[in-house]
Amino acid sequence: MTDVAPQQQTPELAARLTRALQLHQGGDPGRAEALYREILASTAGSFDAAHLLGVALIQRGAHEEGIARIRQAIALDPRQPNARYHLVRALLCRRDWPAAVSACDDLLTLQSQNAEVWFLRGNARQQLGSHAAAVDDYAEALRLKPDFPAAWNNAGHSLRVLRRLAAATSAFRRALALQPAYMVALNNLGLALLDSQRLDEALRSFDDALAVQPDAIEVLSNRGTALMAMKRCSEAADSFARVVSLAPDFGAAVGSLLYARRNCCDWSDDESLAQRVVAAVERGQMADAPLSFVGVCDSAALQLTCARTFSAARYPSKARHPSTAVVITPNAHRQDRIRVAYLSGDFGEHAVSYLIAGVIEHHDRTRFETIGVGWGRGDGPTHMRLRGAFERFIDATDVSDAEIVLRLRDLKVDIAVDLTGHTSGQRTEIFTSRAAPVQVNYLGFPGTSGVTEIDYILADEFLIAPQNQCHYSEKVVYLPECFQANDDQRVIDAPAPTRNDLGLPPDGFVWCSFHGSHKITPSMFEVWVRLARAVPGSVLWLLGGNSLVEDNLRREAAARGLDPQRLVFAAHLPYSRHLARLGLADLCLDTLPFNGGATTSDALWAGVPVVTCAGQSFAARMSGSLLHALGFPELVAYSSSDYERLALQLARAPERLASLRRRLVQRRESSALFDTTRFCRHLEAAYTALLERHARGEPPAMLRVPVRPTERCQSPREDS
């Protein structure tokens, strides 16, 4: 509470004000409020009564009238800073950020050397998303008051959003030097270190925060995220389990717990956790992240609900802040060539890059200009190949989302393609800020974005059946033969290794599945074990490299009656060597509800048949799409029992399997699936149609790209 400002008043008025203030400060705000009102009824021009009545009203939550009373006091005496200060605090409490900035501006005309006012204006600007301006305000607050830990912390937050991570880390450390047990700053420091991939330091910072407040829910969740990044999934699961026990509905904690356990093939409570996640998503809760949820539930409708809920919470539309919204009008970006920007955090040794590299190289440069926008993964031969393929490359690792948006607008980019989606390192805010007039979800994330500002998703008619379009926030662009880009220049190392080199039996049947461990569900593993038991001498060849995963799967195999020695684990290898060893498998087994995408494509490129089970959602139909495009629909099952029966029939029919392999090798050379140039022309036809539609001022709509004739692509057909 501030003192009553001195002003001209009668002794009687002064006594009544003093009595009201005593009641106010003495814990009887109701009687104080009544007395303030009595004073105003008899003396309408009392600045103090109007001011203090406003403060009392705000303290009991009556913000609207409280703010009006404080404004009344300011009108009576504009030179009194106390009332303006209380107005700022009230507007911040009401989350009226633009009005709070304006009120701070007015107060700074009276108190330009008040560090707290600069700090409060920084807070309001931060909430508006004006982080660069907020940093300037915090800098002025700290110039006036260097020992201001909250200003250092909040400045660090804005610097982190701006991806000035070294400066953010320094700011958090300055806050902690002043206040070592500052839990919020310890958590924020951990986040900045996590962003910088300084994982050990990040974990220590989260642990230090928990030493201050052991049950800090957000810190426990962040600690789990750090441990997942370190591939310490069992410890991550322990952190997420603690979150769930303390706050069952906190964020995506239940989904994170399930995902962490699945990453290490710890299936304790798997079914009950999965049911719990699905039920929460059905209720509209943000119980899981979209990437992990596609492995939990095969419903395209629920995946849309999950993606929308997650996106609304993490990446709110800029339309909610009109000051930051932008409208890109038709024809605003027309130019000689169509300018396409591909954005990804995976331009390096990653499946997305292995698939898309050839397409970028094959773009028709007379009609298209390609721009790569990448962050992270800034080394390796595939990264360098992509940098050479793009006409322009922007390293966005240390550049804020807002700066990238402005850069792409300045470059007059026509189409922005999100190759990351809801996967690690996502930067969805670039798209919610509308970086380009046409925005496309493609390849990186196997499902809908749930983001209204992303206009289209690229698919084919097997991947997204026409009747399921309603379960995607984007309009569907149907490519004619297959949704997946492929690189027909993928190199398979020679000479190939032998089975003996890799610990495989020289004559036994090799069942292969090189999917990430999070895709292996207990029910799928049950099928695999039955297949191995049904074929004497056969082995399950799985992706290894994590001793906990290997131990858990061996234990699960033994519990199902299979000798654990019949599981063979493959080490991680460079991509070309990995492709070379794939040919040693007899048959690849797909997963459900999260199919292989690049994993299946790699096996087919290596000449190994793949058996899949197609579900209902995008992620559950990827392998089926690839097999149909390659001319092998007979390898697509539609139930678990048919999947198991088909795989067993092939294992018991070596002549049929050998014939499949021969046909695979032949079709690799002739099929549209592995014709990079053909795919690129279809993609360009889609881009052209999307931009033409935008130029006509028409909203996004479903579109089919026709099969490319021998000479050139026809114009795509649009459907309302």
Question: Overview of this structure, please?
Answer:
By secondary structure, the protein is of the alpha/beta class. Helix 19 links the parallel strand 1 and strand 2 (368-374). The radius of gyration is 30 Å and the shape is elongated. Mean pLDDT is 94; it is low at 1-7, 319-327 and 711-715.
Features:
six-stranded parallel β-sheet; single chain; alpha/beta; nine-stranded mixed β-sheet; elongated; 720 residues; 8% strand; disordered N terminus; Rossmann fold; 30 helices
In the sheet with the most strands, the strands line up as: 3-2-1-4-5-6-7-14-15
Q: What is the arithmetic mean of pLDDT? A: 94
Strand-pairing-aware structural class: alpha/beta
Oligomer: single chain
Topology of this structure?
Layout (H helix, E strand, L loop, with lengths): L10 H15 L3 H14 L4 H13 L3 H14 L4 H13 L3 H12 L6 H13 L3 H14 L4 H13 L3 H14 L4 H13 L3 H14 L4 H13 L3 H14 L6 H11 L6 H13 L7 H4 L6 H15 L23 E7 L6 H12 L5 E7 L6 H9 L2 E4 L5 H10 L4 E4 L10 H4 L5 E4 L14 E4 L15 E4 L31 E4 L8 H13 L4 E5 L3 H13 L7 E4 L4 H8 L4 E3 L8 H8 L4 E4 L8 H9 L5 E2 L2 H12 L2 H17 L5 H20 L7 E2 L12 E2 L2
Parallel strand pairs: 1-2, 1-4, 2-3, 4-5, 5-6, 6-7, 7-14, 8-9, 8-11, 9-10, 11-12, 12-13
Antiparallel strand pairs: 14-15
